[in-house]
Amino acid sequence: MSTETKHPRVPVDAPGPRRGLQIGEAAWDPEGFWGRRQETNAAHTFEHCASWMERLGWLENFDRVARGESTVERAGWEFADSEVYKLLEGLAWELGRRANPRLQALYDSLVARIGAAQAPDGYQGTAFGHPGLPPRYSNMSEGHELYNMGHLIQAAVARLRTYGDDALVQVARRAADHVCREFGEGARATLCGHPEIEVALAEFARATGEERYREQARIFLERRGRGTLPVRVLLSAEYFQDDTPIREADVLRGHAVRALYLSAGAVDVAVDTGDDDLLGALRRQWDRTVARRTFVTGGMGSRHQDEGFGEDWELPPDRAYCETCAGIASVMFSWRLLLATGEAKYADLIERTLHNVVATGPSEDGRAFFYANPLHVRVAGHEYAGEGVNMRAEGGVRAPWFDVSCCPTNVSRTFASTQAYAAFVDADALTLSLYGAGRIAADLGGETFEVRVDTAYPVEGRVEVTVERAPAREVALRLRVPGWAADARGTSPAGEVALAPGWWEVTRAFAPGDRVVLDLDLSPRLAWPDSRIDAQRGTVAVTRGPLVLCVESTDLPDGVAFEDVLLDAAAPLRAHGDGAIAAGLAPASAPDDAGVLPFTAEAPAAAELRAFELPLVPYHRWGARGPAQMRVMIPLAPTAPGT
Amino acid sequence: MSTETKHPRVPVDAPGPRRGLQIGEAAWDPEGFWGRRQETNAAHTFEHCASWMERLGWLENFDRVARGESTVERAGWEFADSEVYKLLEGLAWELGRRANPRLQALYDSLVARIGAAQAPDGYQGTAFGHPGLPPRYSNMSEGHELYNMGHLIQAAVARLRTYGDDALVQVARRAADHVCREFGEGARATLCGHPEIEVALAEFARATGEERYREQARIFLERRGRGTLPVRVLLSAEYFQDDTPIREADVLRGHAVRALYLSAGAVDVAVDTGDDDLLGALRRQWDRTVARRTFVTGGMGSRHQDEGFGEDWELPPDRAYCETCAGIASVMFSWRLLLATGEAKYADLIERTLHNVVATGPSEDGRAFFYANPLHVRVAGHEYAGEGVNMRAEGGVRAPWFDVSCCPTNVSRTFASTQAYAAFVDADALTLSLYGAGRIAADLGGETFEVRVDTAYPVEGRVEVTVERAPAREVALRLRVPGWAADARGTSPAGEVALAPGWWEVTRAFAPGDRVVLDLDLSPRLAWPDSRIDAQRGTVAVTRGPLVLCVESTDLPDGVAFEDVLLDAAAPLRAHGDGAIAAGLAPASAPDDAGVLPFTAEAPAAAELRAFELPLVPYHRWGARGPAQMRVMIPLAPTAPGT
User: Are B594 and A287 in contact (CB under 8 A)?
Assistant: First the structure.
């Protein structure tokens, strides 16, 4: 275990044979897919978020507590505090990546304001436990007090790993100590309705070397699933994952973000305590969740109601919730399983989710966001009227902020640290798991293995890795061949090889200038849903490398109604930029509504169909050209008889 | 208009060429489909509902107000009062149908208790406006005060039409006068978040002859749709139908029960004021709603979230809400349009909805209920653990009561008056619109036209109508040939004819003993969904006459997983009791979850399929044999190439 180290590590510092990269070990080029997002995040998103929180009074909440003037009239939901902490976490990663006086000043000022609101015993929160507010821990199901402190602690973890001890870390340490005192064995035997404190305390234990934080995380995990939390109408124990003990569950269920944060923290505890039973349970849950409750985008959460997973095979494109935050939480869960097991399937899901959920959330300018990421939108610009706070940006219109605004700061902290997902390190191997132009200089047992990655991925399929500095011994360079890749080829100093999905390992005594090149075929391809997915029957998706594509109404020819569009799967797909062109078909005319039910006694006769070119664009860019109807799962045209 | 009459009429006393039957004009035989339900309702359901309301304190709420001891700690939701009024409405219909000392005593005792809680100025309610409670009309969006009073007034309408003036009517009259004073032109310019007062006042105007009640209903209707109601997070103006004025809307939207109650009241106002513009708008809204937002069961409401309609073509079998109350409200709306226009399509939808939504709600013993009526349930017995209050009876387990318990009393008041939907009367015609064994003796311009109906409908397809008394002139007897009927035949004294859907009219000077017989073919048939219904693509339903059938897991052979069941549409369907047997197919084996997404790069190859007999039972009886998985829309087996 990484006890007593103050060395910066990002973002999960797991023990065991594999470790993630440290903060200085990887950097994206500023022009690549992830580098560009990181630059926009630094230039705009942090301050965008801070200005909204100031405007809505979420920061003032802390000042009022500090002045002893708190009231129930405070601004925002009980969990508004967490947005400030997530912003601080993102700033910590960003400042560790590159000094920035403007963002440093923002960080310092926010730390001062939240620190001033801390109670003498370490309690941190603006919605409970101060004069004029409800008592501390009086609403464990929905009060979010430990959730908020969890995000505070995660911000401190980021700071410890990128800088070291500071005022924020001290605030978090006092809060973590308070939580351990109040909720340890023999104290309050309850838990927080929204998991988050578990993963935070587990990471804090690693970052500080204090095992008791991890022990408190373990206590929260074991306590859960026994019906402890009071439930009210419409919120079941399943919603809180308080229905079944985590090591007995067989699939993720209930509120998606909660289930995934909980799972991430549970992997940390399982790994740090050598609990293979728990780790095995989490792996099984991941398997079934991915096989039966995950969209082709990697999105999770099938229900708007309860923001929940839904049941096996319940994957409706239109009502897909696929909250941006659930995508981030899924990456957190999968990354931990990747480090724990080394299995490439976890990296495959991370790639899919980052490119098609997390990257989809924010607008190109980093100042507007989707909350939910459905795979089918029937009404353009629905339920959103211009500037201001709104519930869920829908209909292709990203919103600048939300009443429940968890996604913007979550995207921001994730973008600020995506380079950490680029690779991981074994004793004698550097493994590239997420591709983008940049540089990796990893410590391999005291020697540096430094490579440059040149690629326009995911727009182009060639990934060139050039060794710049190598250990003076035989080591391995491993590149991931994604699960979707057919006909991949690799070229190394040892020659050219055909590659199957999984890890491509090149082992040798590398010398500067050695090149290892992966060639992935990014031709657009169909993705056929399992026949048990009821809401996707008779449809197909089009993908291009890691990108899921979609149809936008913007691209339809005149006279073709969006709901009539069919795809001719027998016709070839053509590449078109980073999208594709498919063969579209639509009935030549649609009937009027005659006041009869939409059911007929005879199977519908083959309609006369009009053919057209159907452009498909990357899903992560949908809505960029204005409000639109959109769909990922495209209805299949009936195949001509006999073909 | 029926001004100043005290003659009993049921249940909608519309002016114009067509009128519904009066309370004494029709009766079901006690053994028929509807008669049996009416008997069970009388024997069990009223007292079942009353005992739950007593047990939960919903009746005590009135006593506490009467004693001046009301507090915010009162029992139940703000709309709990309405359940008492709906129970009273049902009792009024039942007592009008047949004297019953036990139910009369229950009625009298409830009337005394609610009457004691009335404020001196006519205000009636237990959640606002008394000492210790929030002020009157302080939460128009969600307080349900006018909704509650609307149900009180509807109960009084039932009493006026079945009995005459009494204590309940006097309470309702004071409440209605209060509402007119408080919400008339120049008074509070607002409205109730849950429509109901509109239809209640419109009917009360007819039953009392007081036009000002109808004028107040008109005011509420015109006021709506202009964004008057405050909205909070997650509840939009659309939810309340406060987004668009009713005569400008083109489809029903938002909360389904609200939209349908509102529409029913709007037809009443349109008809009574000769407002053809409004009537035309409502007819257009009905047309599009039926064509694009209605399930094959007649169920309406596609979303659990907001209990709402959803969008055009959004008809997911699994997440179908199809609240029992929405079915009842849909019948109210359609019945009014049937009387206003005489078009058979409205009667078709009433038949479908009564048989497949309203009849589905309650258990055979009348003491347990479904709240939502989805068309696909993947998990048997889900979210319900035995006796007690629960949210939504799911997984094939009807619940004795609910926290929000609108459906039991709504079913009860509807069952008590279903005979009113059996027929309507023009100047010179008796038109049978809903079939069941019974007797109809209608006044046709001062002369009685009395017929017996003998039928085992919907189990059998023959409807025999025997004239027992006839006017001494030529009149018409009209029978509905349902829209689903193929090969219908009619036999009358004039001979035998083939019949197309619509009205079959037999005009003559009838004599006692004349028989008019309708023969409907009840062979099971497929119902193919419109290709634009995304969540039903690749499926088909099986119907038998007016009944929609379903598959229950109870009937599957060993080794066939419910989610694997396919229907071979090329094989013939066989009748089987009041259900059917189809040709089932299922893959011989299913793969394990391997931790990969449920998508494949190649179109799924034809699997080896196992054939079996697939029994189908009427949807209204699903769950009667215990918790089960269930589906109405059955996935189609792939057709063999070249067939």
Answer: yes
* B406 annotated active-site: yes
Q: What share of chain A is helix, strand, coil (3-state, %, to 5)?
A: 35, 20, 45
Strands A389-390 and A401-402: parallel
CATH number assigned to the domain comprising residue B215:
1.50.10
Please give the Cα distance from B50 to B160 (Å, whole number): 22
Integer Cα distance of B594 and A53 in angstroms: 43
What is the reported pLDDT for A233?
Answer: 63
Residue appearing with tokens 């009502």: A319
| Listed residue (B351, B475, B9) closest to B203, CA to CA | B9
Phi/psi zone of residue A547: left (φ > 0), alpha (ψ -120 to 50 degrees), beta?
beta
Decide if A640 is inside a domain: no
Enumerate residues 6+ apart whose C-beta is below 8 A from A393.
A368, A369, A370, A371, A372, A384, A399, A402
B 520-579 near A (Cβ less than 8 A): 525-535, 537-539, 541, 563-564, 569
Backbone torsions φ then ψ of B431, nearest 5 degrees = -115, 120
DSSP A43: I
Query: What is the CB neighbour count within 10 angstroms for residue B58?
Result: 23
The verdict on B371 and B510 lying in the same domain is no
Residue B496: active-site member: no
If pLDDT is split at 50, 70 and 90, which confidence band does B382 have?
low
Q: Tell me which residue range forms the domain holding B248.
A: 18-421
Total residue count of chain B as it appears in this document: 643
Q: Do B454 and B348 share a structural domain?
A: no
More confident residue, B3 or B218: B218
Q: In terms of domains, do B546 and B480 share one?
A: no
Residue B383 has pLDDT above 50, yes or no: no
Q: Which of residues 114-173 of A touch B (CB under 8 A)?
A: none
**Could A528 and B602 be called an inter-chain contact, meaning their C-beta atoms sit closer than 8 Å?**
yes
Structural tokens at position B351: 């038949």
Q: Report the C-alpha gap between B485 and B550 in whole angstroms.
A: 20
Out of B290, B594, B602, the one facing A291 most closely (by C-beta) is B594
Residues 217-236 of A with CB under 8 A from B: 233-234, 236
CA distance readout (Å), B376 to A311, A487, B573, B629: 12, 41, 21, 8
Q: How many domains does chain B have?
A: 3
- How many residues comprise chain A? 643
**Shortest CB distance from B598 goes to which of A298, A319, A530?**
A530
pLDDT, tens digit, 9 for 90 and up, residues B148-165 = 999 999 999 999 999 999
Per the CB < 8 Å rule, is B534 touching A404? no
Domain assignment of residue B29, yes or no: yes
Taking the Cβ of residue A311 and every Cβ of chain B, the question of whether any pair is shorter than 8 Å is answered with yes
Contact A596 B290 (CB under 8 A): yes
Per-residue pLDDT at A382: 55
State the CATH number of the domain containing residue B450.
Answer: 2.60.40.1180
Most A CBs within 10 Å, among B352, B523, B532, B534, to test the A interface: B534
Contact list, B345 vs chain A (CB under 8 Å): 595-596
- Specify the 3-state DSSP secondary structure of B492: strand
Q: Is residue A213 one of the residues assigned to a domain?
A: yes
CA distances from A517 to A32, A442, A443, A494, B185 (A): 18, 19, 22, 11, 79
Dihedral of CA B260/B261/B263/B268: which sign?
Answer: positive
Name residues 170-199 of chain A within 8 A of B (Cβ): none
Confidence of residue B5 (pLDDT cuts 50, 70, 90): very low
Assess whether pLDDT exceeds 50 at residue A641: no
B483 in a domain, yes or no?
A: yes
CA–CA separation, B27 and B34 (whole Å): 10
